[in-house]
Structure formats: C-alpha cells, structure tokens
Amino acid sequence: MARPANDPSFTPTRDSSGLAPIYDQLVAEQGNVPAEARRLAEEVQREAAQALDWSRLHPGG
Fold first, then answer.
1. How far apart are the first and last CA of the chain?
2. pLDDT category of residue 49 using cuts at 50, 70 and 90
3. Which of 32, 51, 53, 60 has minimal Cβ neighbours within 10 Å of its Cβ?
4. pTM of the predicted structure, to 2 decimals
C-alpha cells in the first residue's frame, strides 16, 4: 500500500531530470501552467507600464 503524500516520510519517486514523473504527466495533460501564468504576468506588467507611462504627455521631464 502506498503512503499518502501528507505522510512526512513520503518522498515522491524522481526521474533522471530530478522532477517527479507526475509533473511531466500533468504538463502533458494540462500544459505548462506555471510557464503560461508567468508569460501572462509579464505581458500584463508590460501593458501596465505602458499605460502608466506619462512621459509622452510631459516630454523632457
């Protein structure tokens, strides 16, 4: 019987890349959600910086 993940002595099996195999399976099924969230956050930051850039309205200072 497998030990539950909340068992303090539980250690997931890792593959040669050092990642748990479940991660690869989740990426295959759902896409790389953290990478997509990071990409979208960077896009929003760029858009916010452009929206808050008042330098075009007040050239030279």
1. 69
2. very high
3. 60
4. 0.51
